[in-house]
Amino acid sequence: MTAPTTSPAAPGDENGENGGAGKGGRSGKGGEERLPRPDAGGDLFDRDALPAPPGATAALLRSLLAPLKARVAVTCLLLLLQQAAVQAGPLLVAYAIDRAVPALAAGDRGPLIAVGAGGLLCALGAGALQYAFIAVSARVSQDVLLDLRGRIFRHAQALSVDFHERYTSGRLISRSTTDVESLRELLGEGLQELVTVVLSFVSISVLLLWLDLGLGAVAAASFVPLYGMVRVYRRRAREVYRSKSTAMAAVIVKFVETMNGIRPVRAFGREAANDADFAGLNRRHERTNGDALLEMARYVTGSRLIANTAVAGIVLWGAHRVADGSLALGVLAAAVLYLRRLYDPIDRLGMFLNSCQSAAASLDKIAGLLAQTPSVPEPRAPRELPPRASRDPGREVVFERVRFAYRTGGEVLPRFDLTLPAGQTVAVVGSTGAGKSTLAKLLARFYDPTEGRVLLDGVDLRDLAGAELRRGVVMVTQEAFLFSGTVADNIAIGRPDATREEIEHAAKAIGAHDFVTALPDGYDTDVRKRGGRISAGQRQLVAFARALLADPAVLILDEATSSLDIPGERAVQRAMATVLRGRTAVVIAHRLSTVEIADRVLVMEHGRIVEDGTPAELTAAAGRFADLHRAWRDSLA
Ligand SMILES: Nc1ncnc2c1ncn2[C@@H]1O[C@H](COP(=O)(O)OP(=O)(O)O)[C@@H](O)[C@H]1O
Ligand SMILES: [Mg+2]
């Protein structure tokens, strides 16, 4: 399956910075992603779902709760005490009916006062304990939420580029909002339910059996059909909840994708089609939600039916026994009260099972995400680059028998050998899809070669720690993404400790200074809303200044001037000599004007270098470059 070519919201456009129509070079790259179709069913989103390895989910839960062990124990203890206080109620009623009332009739107020005082104490105690429980358990669940969300962010950020090409930002948002939230719910309200249900089951069963063996046995017998119901419900709810969360994720993915790609959405008039798609996804979510509620309703109805039948049976049988004197009235009253309390939490048990279900599904998805390892891992024993003197001409770059294929699609670089001496400026030209950007991305180590090595001054890129690598190689692409913050912040990203002078110096060198000073607050202008106030060309100038300030040994420019107008590009061109001095440079450009400053030109086709020489040599020869060059000359005339 490939993305419809008109798909404006293809996630390849996720950064939305390439401003709409007609940017040929990138438009096909969303190929491995596709638009959610409302009727495509859950499999669309499960297809790429990352299953958690066995045991990972449980291990994640353990690691989340381990630091909170003490507080979890306190929480359970509080609940235990609270239950004891609550469950004392019916016993007091039995005592009041069977002892205190007769004693009062005989003129003794003592037992009644004792019952009253006991009841008050239990009520106060239960309230205080409940308060303490909520306070402690809320902190436990908040801490888990904080921890988990932080882990998701750190992990996702550390994962390699190819992961993010598959796993859309919508899904990441789902993970760190909906999924984290459902776990919090489970640990907050859910945990209380579980402990309450289990405790009241145990304590009430024991109390009932102790009060009267026969009544206790009837109550126990009613557990059998209830247990059956719970099992059936669990099985069905699992299905329903899975499709519900899948449907919710689809809604979020569509939403994020559309808003990220708002420019192409506008440009291609996709609004109506998107509305229809979204409505379909929304309805699917509504339907699955309805199914879940229906399942719940069946469960509640069934369990109430069983509970009420059991209560009615006990009242009937108990009344006869009270009449024939084999059962005290107070005991019957207490038994009925206990039974109500016993069945009450069973309704809530259903809800608890729900949150348990969705929390388990969520935790599973989160564990699956956290189990991903970067495909471009940090080296275990990092090597350092040899020191670079200030007058040093950059670093040598070698591609050694490199083969490369993306996860999807065929081999892009079949076998690639290339040596760039330190300080050389190399222009790479070739038709769209030839593999120029792939070459650049391998050199910037966004991906690792399938075979072979990329060496920087003789050191395999895979052996360089992230920080060392970024000091060595920086790539500027046509995307020119701006983060929220000021223009100065954006320029200083590669060197946060840069002074304002250095920032301005970089901007001046690249010809960005004039437009920046013309902004309302100059360098302190906020580029909020992803650079909405700054044109695409200006964004590229900022990105350029950013790279210049970072001062890497190897600078890669991948169509980095494509959004500039002719005067803008001329300005950059003039600055280029300064910018490229003292470093190795790979300049990928479709405008041949850029090529003139290069020491060497490579023409790439189908992942191979088909021509290699100085601009003068290639222009003189009768090859691809000469043709391109002639066509370009003609277009200028
Ligand atoms: N992320 C990707 N996943 C799969 N295939 C890709 C990806 N990026 C590029 N390709 C494919 O690799 C080939 C070379 O692409 P690219 O290096 O971007 O070419 P160029 O920059 O020369 O236009 C193309 O066939 C393209 O479809
Ligand atoms: Mg390209």
Summarize the structure.
The protein has 637 residues and is α/β, with parallel strands linked by helices.
Describe what you observe in this structure.
This protein has helices at residues 24-27, 43-46, 56-65, 69-105, 110-158, 161-166, 169-211, 213-260, 262-267, 271-323, 329-370, 436-443, 466-472, 487-491, 500-510, 513-517, 528-531, 536-550, 566-580, 615-620, 624-636; strands spanning 397-405, 411-420, 425-429, 451-456, 459-460, 473-477, 554-558, 584-588, 600-605, 608-613. The longest helix is centred in the middle third of the chain and has 53 residues, at 271-323. It is elongated, with a radius of gyration of 35 Å. Strand 4 (451-456) and strand 5 (459-460) form a beta hairpin. The protein folds into two domains: 56-370, ABC transporter transmembrane region fold; 397-636, P-loop containing nucleotide triphosphate hydrolases (Rossmann fold), CATH 3.40.50. The model is unreliable at 1-48 (pLDDT under 50). Helix 4 (69-105) runs antiparallel to helix 5 (110-158), helix 5 runs antiparallel to helix 7 and helix 8 (213-260) runs parallel beside helix 11. The strands form two sheets. The chain has a six-stranded mixed β-sheet with strand order 6-7-8-3-9-10, with helices on both faces. The chain has 637 residues and is of the alpha/beta class. Bound molecules: adenosine-5'-diphosphate and magnesium ion. Adenosine-5'-diphosphate binds at residues 25, 28-29, 32, 165, 406, 408-409, 412, 430, 432-438.
